[in-house]
Every structure is written in C-alpha cells, then in structure tokens.
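=== RUN LOG ===
request id: a7f3
mode: sequence -> structure
chains: 1
length: 141
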Amino acid sequence: MTERAKHEFRTKLEATVCAEMVRQGLPHEHRSLRFRVRNAAGAAAKYSPAIVARRGPILFLVEPVPVLSRPAIERLTGFLDQHSPEIVLVIVAPDAKVRKVPPEAYDEIYPESEVTQMTRRIREQDPKGIVLPFEKPRPAG
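=== RESULT ===
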C-alpha cells in the first residue's frame, strides 16, 4: 500500500485531523477496521471508522462528523452500546455543533478548533495505562 493510499480522506474535516496526526507523528490508519452495528430493529449495518489510532491494546476510533445526521448519530450510539472498553470512540465536530451531539454517541468529543489537543491526548495515552476519564460537555439546551 502506498503512503498516499493510507491517507485517503473523504471530508475536509478528516483531512484536517489526518494532517495534525501526521504533524505530531501519531501513526494512524484510514478505514482499516470494519464492524457490524445492530440497530433497534436488530438489523446489522456496516461501520468502518474514518481513522484508527492504536495505542497498544487501546484503539482510538476517530470519527470526523462535519454534518450531524440522525442515521450517523444512531450508528455511533449503537456502536458504543456494543463495543469493547478498550475502544475509545472520539468524535471531532465543527465547534458550533459539539454541544448538539448527544453524549451517548461518543466516549470523547472535540471541536475542530481543538484537533491539536485531541491528537496530543491520543499520542500521550500510555499503552499500558488506563484510559483517562473524559468530561463530556453539557448538551445545548
């Protein structure tokens, strides 16, 4: 696989996250994992996270979400209900939309303006340590 093929992105927000990970030297992959997520009716939908960063046995699945849609939120929420505790689902959203994402749809969330801090947090995660708790922002009321 060529270097270019490893870093193919589908949105400007994903390109921003990828560029920062490259800048900080954080190894990552694009759409390298595939999951099945069951919905409320029991049907399985495919889910392939946009970016995967591995820190030992801990997987950070980074999902840039430039546009919020009900199906995307339902898929992420369903994934969280079914995933291993060694998987951390991270959403990156436009600053104005962060508080509109329901807390049950992610483990961690960062506004686009904090991609540098999000990347540092993943890079500095001790592969043998516990995942530090994340204080979720209060939803917009």
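=== NOTES ===
The first helix runs from residue 3 to 6.
The helical segments are 3-6, 12-23, 70-82, 115-123.
=== END ===
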